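Sequence in, structure out.
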Amino acid sequence: MKYKIYNYLAGVFSLVIITTSCVNDDDLIQIDPNNKAVDSFWKTDNDALLGVNAAYGSLLTDGTYMRCTPLLLDLKGDDTRSNSPWGAMANVGRFNSNPSNAEIYGWAYETYYQGIFRANQVLTNVPAINFEDAALKNRILGQAYFLRGLYLFHAVNMYKNVPVPTELAAIYPQKTEAEGWAQVIADFKMAAELLPKNYTDITGLDAGEKGRATKGAALGYLGKAYLFNKDFTNARDTFKAVIDLGVYSLVSNYRDNFTETNENNSESLFEVQFSREAGGVDLGWGGAPASGWGKTSARAITYGPRGFGFTDVQPTWALYNDYQLEKTKSNTVDPRLDATIFYNKPGGMQLYGKDFATTYASNTGDLNDLFCRKYQNSDGQRPDEFDWRSGINERLLRYADILLMYAETLNETGNTADAYTYIQMVRDRVNLPDLSIVKPNLTKEQMREQIGHERFLEFPLEGHRFDDIRRWGWLQDPVKLAWLKSRDPEFNSYAAGREFFPIPQLERDNNPGTIQNDSY
């Protein structure tokens, strides 16, 4: 059984998230650590643990990884397209989110700040608690720093100039993008100092619990923050520190990163824990949790193939075609294609226990279309996704990402030759030829392009592609932008400044003087 740190349980006053794999009746009576009127809270080490668990809870609702955040991260890339009938969703990929309509992007913004508020409660109150176990106190504070850094990472990365709350207050003024990134980096640094490598080799209330933030997760996100700010030297050294922990390795089966099989595996630095068994069966749309809420994801139904889900997100033909560019050593197609996309494969392909060609035989459009396979419960154990309740964990940061980002920083700091080694580690899993033989002696610029290609095929539908496009400056490069338009017509509606989402109008109403992002 997966250990779960997200179990919303009904209490006498309100709700809380507790860490457990088994729940008894006493567990159902808990005080809400987010209710400031409850004077009896923030007294014990167990209160502190419950408080940080509540901060994890903001990862689970509609605004974050239940549904909205994957959409916001995925839909602007050239690996995805959307024909959703819901305008707010379809317009994400068309760079046309409406500042006066907060659906999806505004819900995410709100939830990030809910998570930051909860983390700040921990960081404000826990230092005054007398712990018998000082190491537990450090771990709880480390997790709060990590979670605040993660929520703020999303806010700065997607909305640019945002408030940067570091304490409990009534008003949080808008800060610059640089100030936001500086706080993200500071939070991940603190988290990395306080967190353990794992929860297996510790004692205490949180011993053995998977899903909690670790030193590797904090270092991985710290490296990403440096990378996104083009601080290649610090990024390089931080990614190397992750590698040197000796904790992580690639799993042999690429698809194991996107199913309930082998969750929290050796490749995963951090993942959001979902389960069909935990909690109730109601969906967690946001706000104060209710007793019937489950801990499930709506990603699968949102991205699901026609007839099995809503098909709001689909892969692009550019992605499909790029998988055909290089054969494996066995002269077969890159196996990541079949792990990522459902299509009318010669020889047949199964989805939800049915044959693709047979299922779509009466509809030529669907028969010749592409559908998402990553994060689908499609291996035959479920008939479709229409109950909205996927239990597949969302993998936010994988070791493959660390390896390719490390290779990128090596290249950017003048060590292109060594970048080959770390790229090849990722290629070896899918049996691709030795890059140093098929493409020897690449220049720095050529290697930069190659890394872009490698990342495109390794991480589609995982929320990384548009971040890469933006940080590489492709939107400001007329040649690259034209190339993106040729691959994904949604880029035809891109306008300068639209790489960021608008600041929600409610935020501007609540914080007078808040400046809207350019072009909105």
